[in-house]
Amino acid sequence: MKKRIVLRALLGALGTVMLSAPSFAATYDLTVDYVEIDTGTMKTRGIGYNGSSPGPTLRFKEGEEVVINVTNNLEEATSIHWHGLILPYQMDGVPGISFPGIEPGETFTYRIPVSQSGTYWFHSHSGFQEPDGAYGSIIIEPQKREPFKFDREYVVVLKDKHPHSGERILRNLKMMPDYYNRNQRSLGDFIMDVRKNGLGATLSERADWGAMRMMPTDIEDVQGFVGLINGMSPDQNWTGLFHPEERVRLRFINASAMTYFDVRIPGLEMTVVQADGNNVQPVKVDEFRIAVAETYDVIVQPKDDKAYAIMAESMGRSGYGFGTLAPHEGMRAEMPELRKEAPLLTMADMGMNHRDMGHGDMGSGETGKGDMAGMDHGAAPSGNSAMGNAAMDHGSAGSMPGMDHSGMAGMDHSNMAGMDHSAMAMGNRADPFYAAGSGLTPKAANGGKFLSYADLKAQKPLYADRPATREIELRLTGNMERYSWSINGVKYEDAEPIRLKYGERVRFKFVNETMMSHPMHLHGMWSILDTGQGKWNPVKHTININPGTTVYSETEVDEPGQWAFHCHLSYHMATGMFRKVVVEGGPAVATLKNGN
Amino acid sequence: MPSFKKSLIRHIATSTVLLSTLAGMQAPAFAGAGHSGGHGGASTDIGMPGQLSDVRRTIRIVMEDNFFDQEKIIVRAGETVRFMIENKGEFVHEFNIGTAAMHADHQKEMFMMMEHGALEADKINMAMMEMDMGNGMTMKHDDPNSVLLEPGQSAEVIWTFPKDTELEFACNVPGHYESGMMGKIRLQ
């Protein structure tokens, strides 16, 4: 084993993940071990790499070939998936699709020609090893100068560490899908709502929720976790040092099993420069939401000689991660006040909220008010046709296509002459990637700018823009009552693979018919997220689709072999929201080469 | 959109400024556009447009995506410098001389330009730049201390520096300054 890796693992365990000593070693050795995970308030047995969870930060260089020897010290089979890396499919690390897996005591040698740069991560693709701690980060240095400057950098890995093992969590969810839902609505809530809204409205609303087998508090399936930053709980206070005036690059990775985080650093604006490893045109935000498996790189420039809080509240507000950026060792930032009020899902998140969306109301300048939740004024003209509102049948929630927001994403700037400027508070347009009136629509804690997918524009488009050759519809489906999740109503074990042809450009239409957000991850090939910006559409490896919305992404089918395609929420993936993708044709795939 | 050849631009540029795409618009319509005219910076002496005859030195600056090829510029107090600026990137970039506070103000304006579509990542929409923003101002970008260049364009700025002000050169296209597309100007 390389000394440097051991050293870094140790440093990681100590919480000083300073990345100042880059290693361009082409060979890495990783062991997969049972480890103790200590959050200060609980100690659990988990799984890690090189003796710790999270595992080390692997630092590759674009253009080199890396060789990674992975030795399984567990009593069960394991695997490592290199999340977001473009590589030969046999190196992708999905048991049953890429390779058979790594048996106990076995060493598997991964060989990866590194053809990209940016922030990525790796994790086990076996059982619930990833929720149990088997994850680490990857930094790939680019060959060319990056379109931004920074003086130092830190990886900031977020994790929802739960006291229960992944296996136990799924067992409990199967037994009782709301096992981990602390905020169930009570009889008291019912009486309050009757007082406020009247009995009829309250009963009808409750009936709608019942028909969906969902509750408005079903934002997070699995509550009761502690948020970790680089393996450290809020009490343990992970700290990154800086000198005032320095530009600090923070490489955020959400390695959580189930939890989205809303990330902010009170007192600092964050300039987002990368999403899922790909450079984006820099966009300044006060806060951003990171879906499970996504990465965002931001640059901050703390000017004062004081401690700044890195605050990562979970989307459902049931937990949070916390760390500090500090000018000196031993400082702890003041913790900002937690936003206690948990968001509630609304009828819009069922794909039902079409009743009040008369277009005559739009452009009235009343953004951020009630049901309208601030329609995107600029996009209103192009959005009309996509919102067939009047015809919506509230009784058929199960088959409801949901609003088509794709038409709203693209702001046609050439056509804005008649805009109401007073309504255009800077950066406060409604996010077109949430259903209008959605309870999940994020708001920045300081009232400022919250990042939207619509803000992401590729810095340098990876692919020429061209029309897709065909469209494949993927309805994201599930039955909350039985805690089973599926695509087009069919679970993985009952489904045929999705067959793609090498050389085609396929357009995926994700229709979220559930009331949860799903981060869909296609392995091996990029997903070009359609934000309506043509050649500037950003390239990602994980696409989040919110309840009641339809989102499109396109993929240039340029890698042969077979790949996994799934929701990255661990327990959704495990219960069936998963597909195998087979790419037919293309260059002959070399036979599996490894050290065995 | 008007398009000028480099030689023509240089010719026009001999006196004060030149903003290739805005040639011919003389009125300083956006008085607060990040210099001494507005935003409480009235007392700050950032220098003034210089005369070609006073130029003793030319500094070449190349714009890339998203950085300048130079991290800082050193000039003598009171010196008149000719900057020859070339945009070799694929995005629109600005070269602007001012204080950090002026740049911060100007970034808000540039953000609005982008929000309103007057400025796109790789092009400038001239017609929109002249539109009234609803507050009596337009987004015309014709200040003598700055140039806004589309990919492939070049321009000159002749500037007489003050005696002792803390100045920066910067690109205030949204996100670029924060990404490090700026540098200090040291007056000696």
TrEMBL record, chain A:
Report the Gene3D superfamilies cross-referenced here: Cupredoxins - blue copper proteins
Q: Where is this region: Disordered?
A: 360-388
Coiled-coil residues are none
Domain Plastocyanin-like: start-end pairs: 40-144, 227-316, 466-584
Task: Tell me yes or no: is Oxidoreductase among this UniProt entry's keywords.
Answer: yes
Transcription regulation among keywords = no
Keywords of the record: Copper, Metal-binding, Oxidoreductase, Signal
Q: Which residues form the signal peptide?
A: 1-25
> Which PANTHER family does this one have?
FI03373P-RELATED (PTHR11709:SF394), MULTI-COPPER OXIDASE (PTHR11709)
* NCBIfam families linked to this entry: copper_res_A
Q: What is this protein called?
A: Copper oxidase
The organism's taxonomy opens as:
Bacteria, Pseudomonadati, Pseudomonadota, Alphaproteobacteria, Rhodospirillales
From TrEMBL, chain B:
**Pfam hit, one:** Copper-bind
Stretch forming the signal peptide: 1-31
Residue ranges of the Blue (type 1) copper domain? Answer: 68-187
Q: Which SUPFAM superfamilies match?
A: Cupredoxins
| InterPro entries (UniProt xref) | BlueCu_1, Cu-binding_ET, Cupredoxin
Keywords from the named record: Copper, Metal-binding, Signal
The portions of this protein that span the membrane are none
Could you identify this protein by its name?
Answer: Copper-binding protein
Source organism per UniProt? Thalassospira povalilytica
Q: Please spell out the taxonomic lineage of the organism that makes this protein.
A: Bacteria, Pseudomonadati, Pseudomonadota, Alphaproteobacteria, Rhodospirillales
